[in-house]
Write a structure and sequence with these properties.
- By secondary structure, the chain is an alpha/beta fold.
- Helix content is 48%, strand content 20%.
- Strand 1 and strand 2 form a beta hairpin.
- Helix 1 runs parallel beside helix 2, helix 3 crosses helix 5 and helix 4 crosses helix 5.
């Protein structure tokens, strides 16, 4: 597979379902290579599921050779045990990325939703609907975990291509317009 742009691997961690997505970004154009989920059997011991997550992330990295790794941070919930399990799943996915020397960026669920829909409290269905429009996607994957992973990858793409990211610190709108003349619509 010939590649010309930056490859981003997005992960939505989970101990039963882990979403993953691989996009290639060339300038502002985004091509979706993969959007799937790894469904793990709940009857398998927790540590074995973590091992399977590590193996899958390593396999994805070997196949697509991403330049960047973006992962959703666990949200703070009321169930401490669920948070602990989710943190472990996130940790093994990050360990696989570290093993491959990938730069790792973590985004809160609110930040991801805000980047895709403009609303940090958007529902999964709203995020998917916006991703469908942005990337002209038709087919819904089996689980929203896959679409969440795509949202994480797209959020990372937007962050590294943001005008403010390129321009550094700005001193108001006049400074922004001066540093970004291509953004002015006449």
């Amino acid at each position: 597979m010939q590649r010309s742009g930056k490859i981003i691997l997005g992960i939505d961690p989970g101990t039963l379902i882990m979403g993953y997505s691989v996009i290639e970004c060339t300038g502002n154009k985004v091509h979706l290579h993969e959007m799937r989920s790894l469904k793990l059997n709940s009857r398998i011991e927790g540590y074995e599921r973590l091992h399977l997550i590590y193996q899958k992330v390593t396999e994805i990295i070997k196949e697509f050779k991403p330049h960047e790794f973006a992962i959703e941070a666990p949200f703070f919930g009321k169930n401490v045990q669920s948070m602990l399990k989710l943190g472990r799943a996130q940790g093994v996915a990050i360990a696989a990325a570290m093993q491959s020397h990938l730069p790792i960026t973590e985004y809160s669920p609110r930040k991801v939703k805000q980047a895709i829909t403009g609303n940090g409290n958007a529902a999964k269905e709203q995020v998917w609907a916006m991703l469908q429009q942005i990337l002209s996607l038709k087919e819904m994957p089996d689980y929203y975990d896959a679409t969440d992973a795509l949202a994480v990858a797209m959020c990372h793409h937007y962050q590294i291509h943001a005008p403010v990211h390129k321009s550094g610190t700005l001193k108001g709108w006049d400074d922004f317009l001066k540093k970004n003349p291509s953004r002015i619509i006449k």
